Amino acid sequence: MGLNWFRVPKDIVFGEGALSYLAGLEGKRATLVTGGSSMRKNGFLDEAKAQLEKAGMEVSIVDGVEPNPSIETVVRGGQEMAEFGPDWIVAIGGGSALDAAKIMWVYYEYPDTVFEDLVAGKFPKLRTKAKFIAVPSTSGTASEITAFSVITDTKNHIKYPLVSYEMTPDIALLDAVIPSKMPAHITANTGMDVLAHAVEAWVSTEATSFTDPLAYEAIRLVLKQLPVAFKQPNDIKAREDMHNASALAGMAFTNASLGLIHSLAHKIGGEFGITHGLANAILMPYIIDYNRKATNKVEELEKQLGIENLTVAIQDLNKRLNIPLTLKEVDEVEINEKEYLEVIDRMSKNAFGDPCTLTNPRQSSPEDVKKIYECAF
Ligand code: NDP
Ligand code: MN
């Protein structure tokens, strides 16, 4: 019928000590899902467990979610949950832990799920067994807000962006003290992911009056506060602004979708294992310039922000964050001349087919995508 939707989690709880919200939940069992070791080391995993126990719940932990989580990891997590039977799934960690927990949730409720169906956007109805709470530890992906999860087929080096409003978390808990423990380079990369989300939602062909103000405010906050959070990790105001910016950008892009920056970043992430935010940061200036021809919203943004040139502003920001100008300067990108042509060809075709391409303001072709990759290399 051509109707549009604006959907975000029912509750977004923010402020220092947000984890105490967990003590007020009702239920018998909760499963915490987390990544490697950062949440344990910094005491946040214990704190979350203690709060859930205060609520009278038995708690299990599914840990070891790796960056760029694999299909194997989400299937394993689903099995562990099925043995325990949680009423609540509480994901605490970076985008990888949150994304993985979402798909574990699907496998928990529907153990016979076929991964290809999820890739095709066929999601079953969730919340038959558990509700979902997300506690982000990076200010980046906004997985705590979004209907997205990115899962990697590690055998074939393909990252799959999975999309369904079913996966939108029930509750997001935002405490800026948690991301303040990020090392500087992770602050930089994840922060540039926020900027990419906001910029892509702003120029998206599906942008609306509901998403524009959120995207705009996220861009304003990142340009102002990311350099501060990078240099002064304990500046809690800058951390708070970045954490909120991430969620605001998430509210925009989960409803307006993304564009070519993410299409190209997904493929290069799958091919070389390069960090998601870093790939976005490097690609962003090239794609903004590519899109300028097709939309006046870049210019509109520059006027509203009072800056001369968004591309230049982002290049400057990258410099201040020690982010290189080209992809070949990234350590993970090791490639010889012969492979280069093959890889660029394959990535261009795959990136063109990425769902994020659909809402990019400039209609592109695999050849256009290839040209952008060539410039960015
Ligand atoms: P990750 O979750 O991959 O975490 C990266 C690293 O940061 C890990 O080593 C992690 O350690 C560490 N870390 C996380 N938080 C802290 C902290 N507070 N203190 C210290 N170290 C910390 O990073 P991202 O958040 O950038 O997530 C990236 C993933 O999200 C990619 O797979 C990407 O494709 C996906 N993505 C999802 C989107 C969505 O809408 N769902 C949108 C965009 C990207 P440890 O493992 O020990 O915790
Ligand atoms: Mn992203």
Polypeptide structure, described:
The protein has 377 residues and is α/β, with parallel strands linked by helices. It has two domains: 11-174, Rossmann fold (3-Layer(aba) Sandwich); 182-376, Dehydroquinate synthase-like - alpha domain (Dehydroquinate synthase-like, alpha domain, Up-down Bundle). It contains 14 helices and eight strands. The chain has a six-stranded parallel beta sheet with strand order 1-8-5-4-2-3, with helices on both faces. A two-stranded antiparallel ribbon has the order 6-7. Strand 6 and strand 7 form a beta hairpin. Helix 6 packs antiparallel against helix 7 and helix 6 (184-203) packs parallel to helix 8. It is globular. The mean pLDDT is 96. The structure holds NADPH dihydro-nicotinamide-adenine-dinucleotide phosphate and manganese (II) ion (MN). NADPH dihydro-nicotinamide-adenine-dinucleotide phosphate (NDP) binds at residues 35-39, 67-68, 93-97, 99, 137-138, 140-143, 146, 148-150, 178-179, 181-182, 186, 190, 193, 276-277.
